[in-house]
Amino acid sequence: MLQGDNILKDGCVSVILQFLREDKYNDKIDKIEHAYQLLINDDNDEILRKLVICLRYENYWLKPNTNKLISLFIVSKAALHCLSELFESLEEYPGNLSNFSDPILQLVENITGNYNANNQSSGIDLEESSLLAVLQRLYDEATEDMDKEAINICLDIWDKLLQSDIYSAMEAIDRLDGGLLS
């Protein structure tokens, strides 16, 4: 069914969004992970756009498997359709972001890799997005927890951003001087 036509996939998307929106079935919510992962990586842009709305659901962020769902979403095709919303949601996320340092690094690699390969903008204005706030928070949490692996991942993310053309080195250095390295 998940490999089937778009009408069937659209129905699955509706059911998954309903489960993510409502504060029900939390004891069984892990059963949707496989379908969720397939659908957030579907080739149909309309399916991906519909799934993006889950980021706005308060209950999405309260599910027992939230870490798994977010980790799957961050590295999905759907994430590339809603980078600003994703980074805003991560910035507002009440939990510890260090759980997502690896997926965030992978997402930044995808963004910078796509930009460098296509020489096209990813559709995100990094200066205006919450990515920098998320990176600052991720680094602060890693420093507070003395998590050397997460600190190194944060620095790797900054390296990727500095090596790409989507964010000028001078602006990034100003950000580093103003927060990350202060």
Key terms for this structure?
mainly alpha, 182 residues, 60% helix
User: What is the SS-derived class?
Assistant: mainly alpha
Helix content: 55-70%
- Tally of alpha and pi helices: 9
Number of domains: 2
Could you give the count of β-strands? 0
- How confident is the prediction overall: mean pLDDT? 80
Radius of gyration: 17 Å
Q: How do you describe this structure in short?
A:
The chain has 182 residues and is mostly helical. It has helices at residues 6-21, 33-39, 45-52, 66-74, 83-92, 101-118, 131-144, 148-163, 169-180.
What does this structure look like?
By secondary structure, the chain is mainly α. It folds into 2 domains: 1-81; 83-182. Helix content is 60%, strand content 0%. It has 9 helices and no strands. Helix 7 (131-144) runs antiparallel to helix 8. It is globular. The N and C termini lie far apart (52 Å).
Set out the fold topology.
Elements: H1 6-21, H2 33-39, H3 45-52, H4 66-74, H5 83-92, H6 101-118, H7 131-144, H8 148-163, H9 169-180
